[in-house]
Amino acid sequence: MEILGYAASIIMGLTLGLIGGGGSILTVPILVYLFDVDPVLSTAYSLFVVGLTSAVGSVSHFRKGNVDLKTALIFGIPSIIAVYMVRKFAVPAIPDVLFTVGEFVMTKALFIMVLFAILMVLASVSMIRKPKKDVNNGNDTVSPAAEKKFNYPLILGEGILVGGITGLVGAGGGFLIIPALVLLAGLPMKQAVGTSLLIIALKSLLGFTGDLGSGLKIDYTFMVVFSAFAMVGILIGSYLTHFISNEKLKPAFGWFVLVMGLYILTKEIFF
């Protein structure tokens, strides 16, 4: 099972490298079901792994000029603060048993897995749905009207919301960040993807520091080894982008994530 888990971590990184986002949402299920890691601890590991892989992915985008540093700071700062606060104070404050209804018991671990599964379903919809095409050149980008918008208050609010969600479930939240950057900051799609990776890297890695001293028993050796396998995957995936179109892969992966999300919901609630 451990060998299968490390193989899955490579596939997770491979997917992230191929489609530029979404692959990291598999991190928590891999840790929970293949490595038998506690869901709360898995979200901490996931923050580190997602942050590290996103940082690597953002380097190539930065070299191509696809990272808007100004927008990354405006969106990233409140998001980083939110992640840190949630990991440092909110997650430890969640009681081990939230409520009971008859024989059903909503535990802290179950709550996190159900919330994560719902996030997977929402993420899958954004991957399956075809992006709007620009009327001028057919590329994925924003409309001329949206290019003039730069809604600071909404960007700040979205940053806090995404940071809070990331803090709870340990996922990068790229499926929420990218549309926000396109619609609220007026970034072209390629720039939104590159900027999103930088934001995810910063908020995930800095948010992970909120777990330090929280009482979680972090196995740093395991976390680094798991991350290394994911890094191998993202490097392979980045190389394969020269031969494989991510436009065809993304919807297919979206359906896979949808099935996984529904499976987790069913397994955790009914079994």
Short description:
72% of the residues lie in helices and 3% in strands. The chain is mainly alpha-helical. Strand 1 and strand 2 form a beta hairpin.
Walk me through this protein's architecture.
This protein is mostly helical and 271 residues long. The protein has one domain (2-270). It has eleven helices and two strands; from the N terminus they run H-H-H-H-E-E-H-H-H-H-H-H-H. The protein has helices at 2-19, 27-34, 39-63, 69-93, 108-128, 144-147, 152-169, 174-184, 189-208, 220-240, 246-270; strands at residues 97-101, 104-107. A two-stranded antiparallel ribbon has the order 1-2. Strand 1 and strand 2 (104-107) form a beta hairpin. Helix 4 (69-93) crosses helix 7 (152-169). The model is unreliable at 134-148 (pLDDT under 50).
Lay out the secondary structure.
Elements: H1 2-19, H2 27-34, H3 39-63, H4 69-93, E1 97-101, E2 104-107, H5 108-128, H6 144-147, H7 152-169, H8 174-184, H9 189-208, H10 220-240, H11 246-270
Antiparallel strand pairs: 1-2
Helix pairs in contact: 1-2, 1-10, 2-3, 3-9, 3-10, 4-7, 4-9, 5-11, 7-8, 8-9
For the report, how would you describe the main beta sheet? 2 strands, antiparallel
Radius of gyration: 18 Å
Low-confidence stretches: 134-148
Give the percentage of residues in beta strands: under 5%
Instruction: Estimate the helix proportion, in percent.
Output: over 70%
Number of strands: 2
Global mean pLDDT? 84
Instruction: Give the structural class.
Output: mainly alpha
Order of helices and strands: HHHHEEHHHHHHH
**Widest β-sheet, arrangement of strands:** 1-2
The end-to-end span amounts to 21 Å
Count of helical stretches: 11
What count of domains describes the coordinates? 1
Shape: globular
